[in-house]
Amino acid sequence: MLKYLLIAVVVIWLLYSPILRRARQLKRDRRTAAPTAAPGPAKAPQVEDMVACAHCGVHLPASEAFRDAVNRPYCSDVHRIAGPSARRSGS
Ligand SMILES: [Zn+2]
Q1: How many CA atoms lie within 13 A of 16 on its CB side?
Q2: Residues within 5 Å of ion ligand 1 by Cβ?
Q3: pTM, to two decimals
């Protein structure tokens, strides 16, 4: 009987401990971050421009694009070296 009780306690502990740890961490994060933040309108979410790869047309954030000499965006260095596709270079 005691064995089952022990198993039940272990199972409950396993279920709750990650949740409690996370809640405690969130509380700590809020405490360290909050004092400097002034109450006011919420900041707009950061938006980043998306660009299409000049070779394959895949869209990616502008900051992650590989650029060639004339500043065309590419999804990867391989596509930058391959250059713009014939289909897309006309536009
Ligand atoms: Zn590409």
Answers
A1: 6
A2: 53, 55-56, 58, 75, 79
A3: 0.47
